[in-house]
Specification:
The protein is α+β, with helices and mostly antiparallel strands. The chain has 10 helices and 17 strands. A hairpin with a 2-residue loop joins strand 11 (286-288) and strand 12.
């Protein structure tokens, strides 16, 4: 009896002794259960850590990792038992190494060698008629300045467009701008890469593109053009007015050839009195040192006292022809201005100004010489 009670009292004393430290020391250092799990200093099986002793790998908040956990520790680290969730980006895990440029270059070279000998696959056309050559007629007309594509389609619908002498009645026709002759309302459309300009030449400018003496010339007004231009005909140095510049050789040749008889109109300031038969005399012809010269039209535009402003139209292009004709008739010219070259008028264009001819004006010029 004594020994049994002694054991009980001893056990009770040990229990009380273990509980004297409060609930927080329930599993204190003297606990026999911890000793059995190998938590003491003895060499046994390593014990599992208690919840308050577990380490959670939170990125950036602790020291080096203790290695992979097993069992409940790994589950707790992943969020079990209230453990904090961890993102793989912030956990300090291993990342794939970046590929070097040499590796990418070798891979690309291998891919090229792999597909080098394979036949090229041609994708099918996505719209009908794409295999045809040339450009659509309405697109060519729009680029030539005849209006928007829709407006050019309306021109075709109205049967106002002809290609190589035949009127176009259907939309979508394809043409070659460099070879086909395209006309709208009977006027040729300049679809090629030709340039046409009109310059109001001031007095004192030489009618050449370059002057070896350094005088001001026509080339000074087109120095910024990539395409070489040349003048159509000439005006003497003291004569003002319209002169054409282009890179279309055939048109320039026809405009200046006497065969085509392109008319030029001049305004001349002379001093009278002016008899009425002067106009008739000029139209019938005046004998000059290089042959007869005839005016196609003559009229008095303005008279202020003895000062007259007369208009002379002729189709000849000989040098100083108007000045010589009026001087031979007894009326030397004080000032001379060319106001029109064929169908192209000077209008209100200021002296020294260069302007590009419209497509309609180019068509009128071509019609004048049968192009």
């Amino acid at each position: 009896m004594r020994s049994s009670s002694g054991r009980n009292s001893g056990n009770n004393g040990g229990s009380r002794g273990g509980n004297s430290g409060g609930r927080g020391n329930y599993r204190g250092a003297g606990n026999s259960r911890d000793d059995r799990q190998g938590g003491g200093s003895g060499g046994g099986r390593p014990r599992n850590p208690r919840p308050e002793e577990r380490k959670y790998d939170v990125g950036g908040s602790g020291g080096p990792s203790d290695g992979p956990k097993k069992g409940r520790g790994a589950a707790a680290r992943g969020g079990a038992k209230g453990g904090p969730k961890q993102s793989p980006q912030r956990g300090g895990g291993r990342t794939a190494p970046a590929r070097s440029r040499e590796y990418d270059a070798r891979a690309e070279e291998r891919n090229r060698e792999r597909y080098a000998n394979k036949p090229q696959v041609k994708t099918p056309k996505t719209f009908p008629g794409a295999e045809q050559e040339g450009e659509r007629l309405q697109k060519v007309l729009a680029r030539a300045g005849m209006g928007s594509r829709r407006a050019c389609e309306e021109l075709i619908e109205q049967a106002r467009v002809e290609v190589n002498g035949e009127i176009v009645l259907e939309q979508g026709m394809r043409v070659d701008p460099e070879k086909d002759e395209i006309k709208v309302d009977g006027l040729t459309v300049a679809t090629q890469s030709y340039l046409f300009f009109a310059l109001n030449k001031p007095a004192g400018v030489v009618s050449t593109m370059e002057d070896p003496d350094g005088r001001q010339c026509l080339g000074d007004y087109v120095t910024n053009r990539e395409t070489r231009l040349f003048h159509v005909g000439r005006l003497d140095t003291e004569t003002e007015g319209i002169i054409l510049l282009t890179n279309h050789g055939e048109l320039a040749h026809r405009l200046t050839h006497p065969k085509y008889g392109v008319k030029k109109t001049y305004l001349a300031a002379i001093t009278g009195p002016l008899p009425r038969e002067v106009g008739k005399l000029l139209k019938e012809g005046i004998q000059l040192e290089d042959g007869y010269a005839r005016a196609d039209h003559f009229r008095v535009v303005e008279q202020i006292g003895k000062n007259y402003l007369v208009e002379v139209t002729l189709h000849e292009g000989r040098k100083h022809i108007v000045r010589r004709m009026l001087a031979e008739a007894g009326f030397p010219v004080e000032k001379l201005v060319r106001t029109a070259f064929g169908p192209i008028g000077l209008g209100d264009q200021k002296s020294g100004w260069l302007r590009r001819l419209t497509n309609t004006e180019v068509g009128m010029l071509m019609k004048e010489v049968g192009m």
